[in-house]
Amino acid sequence: MNDDLFIALALSILSRQPLPVKTPLSLNLLDPVSCVLYPIFMHVYFSGVGGAAISALAVIAKEAGYEVSGSDGRDSQYLAYLRKQGIEDTHVGLTREQIAAVHARKPIDWFVYGSAQPLDFPDNPEFTFCKENNIKMTKRDELLNEILSQKELKLIAVAGTHGKTTTTAMVVWLFKQLKIPTSYSVGAKISFGDMGQFDPKSEYFVYEADEFDRNFLAFKPRLSIVSGVAWDHHEIFPTEKDYFDAFRLFVAQSQEVVLWHNDAEKLDLLSKSTPGLFIESENTTFIDDIKLIGRYNRFDGWLAIRAAAHLTQKPPNELIKLMNDFPGVSRRFEKLTENLYTDYAHTPDKIRGVMSVALETAQKTGQKIIIIYEPLTNRRMHYMKEQHQDVFDGVDALYWVPSYLAREDPNQPVLSPADLIKFLDTPAEAVARPAELNEKLKTIVKKHLKNGDLVIGLSGGGGKSLDEWLRQEFND
Description:
Elements: H1 3-15, E1 43-47, H2 52-63, E2 67-72, H3 77-84, E3 90-92, H4 96-105, E4 110-113, H5 117-120, H6 125-132, E5 136-139, H7 140-151, E6 154-159, H8 164-177, E7 182-185, E8 196-197, E9 204-208, E10 223-226, H9 240-253, E11 256-260, H10 261-266, E12 277-280, H11 295-312, H12 316-323, E13 334-337, E14 340-343, H13 348-365, E15 369-374, H14 378-384, E16 397-400, H15 417-421, H16 426-431, E17 432-434, H17 439-450, E18 454-459, H18 466-474
Parallel strand pairs: 1-2, 1-4, 2-3, 4-5, 6-9, 6-10, 7-9, 10-11, 11-12, 14-18, 15-16, 15-18, 16-17
Antiparallel strand pairs: 7-8, 13-14
Helix pairs in contact: 8-11, 11-12
């Protein structure tokens, strides 16, 4: 080690500041690929670490060499998952005393919080503690951009109102089957890897780029996939134009983009000679060769195939064969026990996606379709209640439970299941019943399962949601 590097390293250790210096030397402190003396000195604390996206980032940060700790407002399966990944310095509770204890054990260099944290916990005392102790505070996008820059990774971003989690997982699946080293972040658990992974040999980082709080606008992707666009997150985007404008900007920031013709039309991209656009027809014959169950799954599969084919120069027919073995992701028609499934669907387009799977399944098996629906937020239902009119057509019974409340507008009255059922069309309203997560519903579900019916719970919530209730009461 030369004298200048030795002095710089010593100063970095003493000051606890990053040292982005490249060197050919082989030291245990160096990144094995880029030889960047950086993350080993960083202690990153994640607030809201139990969230799907931020927990994946915590795993990525740990694998990239950062010291990781964190907190969440409620216990969940994600905290248990993190502990299994070796991230044990996590706790339930957002208190000054808890973060102070973590900081005392090892000073926190970077405080990262999820986009929903200021809305879910506006009086989070951790924020005050960090400001008083001059700890760097950012949302997760800035840390991820730091990792992308330090590791010289090219970003493949998957955005969209619906389908982005599945499409992201599909791209990761294809890369893994092709034996291409890949770093990635998926907003759900997958059976063929962790939710997040950093591979020091990777060239690409595949990322589920969420539009909530305009998170996806923090990035300039090498290639983006837009899986579908329909106005959502009304507390962030007051009008449909605001929402579409954000996607237009996301497209403009991307070097290349794969998207459907229908979405390109919504975003007014067809009349412009925008370079790097791969506009796909919903009627492409390749989709017929994809054997995944569910029309929307086949659509997502084709976008992933189209993007992977472009990046790897592999023929689509070869990738279709790999896609036909895609095992799916958790909470996307995930089987809990015989004939009982759970799904993350919580917007009309997402519900149509899971209904396409249910209808195709029932057509083959002859089963009755039973839906238990828990809307995600009362606020969203005030905007989308009319759009649910026909999404449940074809079901044999619908049990509508109270909305999962989060980030609500206190000025909006809470709409009951009975209030919302009135907006369904005649066929769906005739089989719909208000329900609650209680013993009565448990007995009803047991009866349907005993009769061999296909029962699907739709829930976008986390702790104490319908999804968690089903897992606790029925998961084998």
